[in-house]
Amino acid sequence: MTKLTNAQRKAIYKRDGYMCALCGSGRYLQIHHYIHRGQGGSNSPHNLITLCSDCHALAHGLNLHDFPDMTQEYVEQCILEYLADYYAPDWDPWE
Ligand SMILES: [Zn+2]
Ligand SMILES: [Zn+2]
User: What global pTM score does this model have?
Assistant: First the structure.
């Protein structure tokens, strides 16, 4: 698995306005692969999104008990819509 370079990370943060693409928080930002690397997702910006640590945990199905209104499916759907809209009609998150 190829790790993201700092330049790749910075480009994603910049695209997303240095805030979480789901909740708008600017704290504890992390990069998330929409399609996980092990499932064939690429390191292209089409597959990467800026999330805060809370939303990132939700995207991985963690800490859901802290956010009773949220489901992992809902978070994944929001990420899909964000990326698909951003790169429409040529969205391609696959390697
Ligand atoms: Zn967030
Ligand atoms: Zn992730």
Answer: 0.94
